[in-house]
Amino acid sequence: DATDRTEYTIKAQTGKVDILDGMTTETLGYNGDLLGPVLQFKKGETIKINTINELDQETTFHWHGLEVPGEADGGPHTTLSPGEKEQIEFKVTQEAATLWFHPHPEGKTSEQVYKGLAGLIYIEDSNSAKLEIPKEYGKNDIPLVFQDRIFDEQGQLDYKAVMNEDGTIGDTLLVNGTVNPVLPVEKEQVRLRLLNGSNARNFTFKLNTGESFVQIATDGGFLNEPVTLNEVTLTPSERAEIIIDFSQLNSTNDLSLINEDGSILLPFDVSNQEADSLKTSEKLNDFAVTDEEENMPVTKNIELFGMMEHVEINGKKFDPERIDFTQEQGVTEVWEIYNKKDMMGGMIHPFHIHGTQFKIVSRDGVEPKEYEQGWKDTIAIHPGEKVKIAIQFKHKGVYMFHCHILEHEDNGMMGQIEVK
Ligand code: C2O
Ligand code: CU
Ligand code: CU
């Protein structure tokens, strides 16, 4: 593991981008007009970040999926006023993964993310360094942030006008902040690091040919081995890393990733260039839910309920003054999360916990599918479903847990846990 110290400066700022033809959209971004840089951390390294708020409103800097002390986590308690700066410091203690960062001010998270505040974080470690997987950034290791948005006639992201209490669903897909993207690839294995950065929309990624690919990582790390799949579904804030082997597909004309409804998510432009073929490692990680974790009694119950503005957790809305749970640092507990149906049947809530990664023990009493047998920080809970997770916090502090439909979060579908 690394022992370096690296310092970054991350500014939240306003921007202007020609996203649509001939129109200039007012946006928000980190160190730029829209979205943010990909921060590349190494396990073991100490990271200092100078966070600067250059917006005309309060914001926070939240590191989604990163195991950091509560005070560095950037939840709604740590707001920066316009013009304010704050330096945070933490050590990277977790394994290789694709994480992200975004703002978290109370009641304003959805709008700020919608307008463009989001960036990626890669963690690399000694395991990822030795694995045989595509690693050439931008060539065969591609960051992909999928977000749906609505532009008004002037090309603006008028959040207030389109905001929906159950989560704002857009009619225009942005991939890494662009419309109508095309990804050029060679005939080789290409690793796609997928982030669903939408406020509320779920995506199911599949090839338009129906051919399979492998998933190699979940939110918080590698799966034990590549899992062959025909599709992967991500709810807001979930990530997956997949590898598509373009040298093995039947035809590479008109190839694209499509969504459940057949709409195009990402077309590929496959060159005839045959790149050196690589054999993906068959063993990627050592992840396991232990017998002890499987047999542990449930010590926390979380009930998700509602829709629109009537969303709540355990019958309550978020109260910044109230600590809902406590847990001891370094002690594993099993939580049961239940998505209680309503008369309308209910909806999927992507449930997220700050400051740590957890393991799925079971979904309705059944062991999770292979592609969920890895570290997670967000999990889709289906209506009526009960999910058990084993969770431990490495650090102390106050952390949020919430639905990652950002409008649900802003409507109070959030609670707090204090780790002591
Ligand atoms: Cu993506 Cu409260 O976080
Ligand atoms: Cu988070
Ligand atoms: Cu929700």
From TrEMBL:
The keyword Metal-binding applies. Residues 12-127, 167-248, 296-419 form the Plastocyanin-like domain. The keyword Cell division does not apply. Keywords: Metal-binding, Oxidoreductase. Belongs to the multicopper oxidase family. This is Copper oxidase. It comes from Sporosarcina ureae. The chain holds residues 83 to 502 of 502 of the full protein.
